[in-house]
């Protein structure tokens, strides 16, 4: 349910963008959902339906998944995310604060926690489409 | 296109009347002790108070409060658990006692995440325990938390105050409100810190004595309340 | 394509026999005092010694050494100036006493730059004064400085040791050599730190007493050499 | 003259890359020189001529300038670098450690030192071309 908080952010950001660009009706909002944070797409969609303001009345809410990619700063190794073998506590910690990955995940080659989350960290507003007031 | 978390942070602080960061250019000057004591004494005075520990690599407020196994509730965001009457948020809810090797970029990201998803509700005051120095955490709280105010802690040592002076100059340059400077662990009162602070046009809030009982009281707010340290901080909180 | 500075760092350390980082999970435990005293006493023992201050947001070694206006020479790189017989490098050569609001990424970049361009020449030992915590500076020195070893400082306080334990666990996990732990500012000897350190399978290097004269000796290595503090550190350096 | 140290890095990095990729003769090294660090192109070229190993005997050493761009994290303002009005000390400090920009330069709109050096920080190895041993 902290997905609601993230969707509130998406709507606030999209609304601000719309206002700054004279968009009076949003037709599409594309959100990239990074795998690391393990958010539920259904919950995001449900939250969007419930939180949307009239500006988004006819907006399509598109979710695109992005796999998480880690790149080790120590040895250069790149690898992906799997929640296999993770306890529920750990998985939850990463769900709320994806940076907890550095506490619980180590480089699969050299064991270092000093890696970059190159892709797929969390929720990201990719594009919005809409109709301008004077169109 | 953009990070959807930033736009929601302001709303999270809508019903928080004051945000006070306890900060210092220097480590080990008592920021966490002061932040915790201030939060508790504001609460004792009948205010609704939150405590946010932003020192991710050396969190201390959970040790001072003596809390363990707390966990936020997930409800349209996350709602911080209560700890001794405070709405209490700390990374240790998630990291427990594991090392948290975070680069600045990660610290920044984690702070933005916490500020975006934490629902403080209605608070008279949120006290923020800061990490030392002038890095990501300091720059982000200044940038992101609306109308944050600073209490800056120092010890009487010239080494400490050199770093603290740098922070004070920066905050002044940025026109960030500074409530004042709290000198802590004073053994021989009457040093030069008050003078230096007043020369910067800032308020010298208190000279807090070195107090042996503080160590004994770690983990036990009831014992902490009985210390001279707490009484001196209570006097500061009374004037806030 | 790539950062040309990384590949040259190893060469810069080719003639440096030992690199010892003085570190701690916690701020204000005496890292800078210990690093400076160790460097001076190794030098007094006839070794060629360098001192590198990597605590960019609260540098302290220049205050402890009492040096000002030093400037590196530019000669096929930069050659650190001498300070009281030490090859001495600090960001304060460039920032003087201005605030240095650096994010982690900047800290990392500045460390890489310094490591790549500084020509230490031949040294028996380079002592590195680290910032507190487990952030960019710690991760980069581990990653970039060949065969670096750590001395970890703590105070007797449980709040400090909690953070220090996290750092020790991390260093152990990463198989970084730990020379041992130095307990500092001890007022009542015989606490639990030695026990905890030995339980981790690590060496407890010394119990260094709280020494009022340290503050008086700031800025004056001659005075520092006469303190009990210095003598206790000299004993540690003798065994290195 | 600390340009020599940077060129040593360029040569070491290019040599490592050549070795890893079986290149036995380097024909071109392209280095991007960020404006912020204010390094002298002539000195870089001179250093390259003096430091180059036989691997680089016939290599062209190409320097490309990149203007420095700052982007304020506080207000979003973007602006460029000018050393005008800077004392020699400050200019030198930035020459040796470009991060000193955060000490001496402020956002031209809001005065914040919390800006990103989006482009043009320092010396960067862009591309190398060469001949493989088996060609
Ligand atoms: N007034 C005081 N008297 C005695 N000890 C103190 C006092 N204030 C703080 N301390 C102790 O000093 C150490 C550093 O305090 P802490 O609050 O953790 O500092 P910081 O948060 O600035 O790193 C702790 O061991 C703490 O218990
Ligand atoms: N053994 C000691 N006795 C008394 N004061 C000390 C001792 N060690 C350090 N100090 C003082 O404690 C403060 C913190 O020391 P410092 O070396 O700056 O710590 P750090 O580098 O860990 O932040 C300084 O004011 C220093 O003078
Ligand atoms: Mg603290
Ligand atoms: Mg554990
Ligand atoms: Mg220090
Ligand atoms: Mg000045
Ligand atoms: Ni959730
Ligand atoms: Ni130069
Ligand atoms: Zn690795
Ligand atoms: Zn700005």
Describe the structure.
The complex is a heterotetramer, with 2 copies of chain A (135 residues) and 2 copies of chain B (240 residues). Chain A folds into 2 domains: 1-67 and 120-135, hypothetical protein PF0899 fold (2-Layer Sandwich); 68-119, no CATH class. Chain A has helices at 3-20, 41-51, 88-96, 101-104, and strands at 23-34, 60-66, 69-72, 78-80, 115-119, 123-132. In chain A, helix 1 (3-20) packs across helix 2. Chain A has 135 residues and is of the alpha+beta class. The longest helix of chain A has 18 residues, at 3-20. In chain A, a hairpin with a 5-residue loop joins strand 3 and strand 4 (78-80). A 3-stranded mixed beta sheet of chain A has the order 2-1-6, with helices on one face. In chain A, strands 4-3-5 form a 3-stranded antiparallel beta sheet, with no helix packed on it. Chain B has 240 residues and is an alpha/beta fold. Chain B has one domain (4-238): P-loop containing nucleotide triphosphate hydrolases (Rossmann fold), CATH 3.40.50. Chain B contains 11 helices and 10 strands. Chain B has helices at residues 6-12, 31-44, 61-65, 92-95, 104-117, 136-144, 158-173, 193-199, 213-216, 221-225, 228-238, and strands at residues 16-23, 49-53, 73-74, 78-79, 82-83, 86-90, 123-129, 148-154, 178-186, 204-209. Chain B starts with 5 loop residues before the first helix and ends with a helix. The model of chain B has no long low-confidence stretch (mean pLDDT 97). Chains C and D meet through helix 1 and helix 5 of C and helix 1, helix 3, helix 4 and strand 6 of D. One nickel (II) ion is lined by residues 1-3, 95 of chain A. The site of one magnesium ion (MG) has 5 residues of chain B, from helix 2.
């Amino acid at each position: 349910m902290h997905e609601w908080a993230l969707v509130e952010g998406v709507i606030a950001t999209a609304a601000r963008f719309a206002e700054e660009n004279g968009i009076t009706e949003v037709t599409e909002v594309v959100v990239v959902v990074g795998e690391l944070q393990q958010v539920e797409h259904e919950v995001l969609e449900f939250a969007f339906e419930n939180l949307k303001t009239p500006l988004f009345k006819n907006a399509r809410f598109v979710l695109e998944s992005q796999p998480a990619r880690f790149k080790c700063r120590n040895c250069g190794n790149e690898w992906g995310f799997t929640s296999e073998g993770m306890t529920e506590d750990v998985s939850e910690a990463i769900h709320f604060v994806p940076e907890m990955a550095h506490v619980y995940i180590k480089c699969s080659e050299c064991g270092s926690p000093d890696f970059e989350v190159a892709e797929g960290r969390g929720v990201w507003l990719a594009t919005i489409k809409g109709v301008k007031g004077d169109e | 296109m953009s990070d959807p978390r930033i736009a929601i942070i302001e709303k999270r602080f809508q019903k928080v009347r004051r945000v006070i960061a306890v900060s210092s250019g220097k480590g080990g000057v008592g920021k966490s002790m002061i932040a915790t004591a201030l939060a508790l004494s504001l609460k004792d005075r009948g205010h609704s108070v939150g405590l946010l520990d932003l020192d991710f690599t050396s969190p201390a407020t959970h040790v001072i409060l003596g809390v363990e196994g707390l966990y936020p509730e997930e409800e349209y965001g996350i709602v911080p658990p209560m700890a001794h009457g405070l709405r209490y948020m700390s990374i240790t809810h998630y990291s427990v006692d594991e090392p948290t090797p975070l680069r600045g970029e990660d610290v920044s990201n984690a702070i933005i995440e916490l500020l975006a998803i934490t629902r403080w509700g209605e608070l008279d005051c949120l006290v923020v325990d800061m990490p030392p120095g002038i890095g990501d955490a300091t720059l982000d709280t200044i940038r992101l938390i609306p109308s944050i105010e600073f209490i800056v802690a120092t010890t009487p040592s010239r080494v400490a105050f050199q770093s603290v002076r740098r922070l004070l100059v920066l905050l002044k340059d940025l026109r960030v409100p500074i409530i004042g400077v709290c000198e802590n662990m004073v053994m021989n009162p009457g040093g030069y810190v008050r003078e230096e602070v007043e020369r910067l046009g800032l308020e010298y809030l208190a000279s807090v004595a070195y107090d042996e009982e503080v160590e004994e009281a770690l983990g036990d707010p009831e014992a902490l309340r009985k210390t001279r340290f707490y009484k001196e901080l209570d006097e500061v909180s009374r004037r806030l």
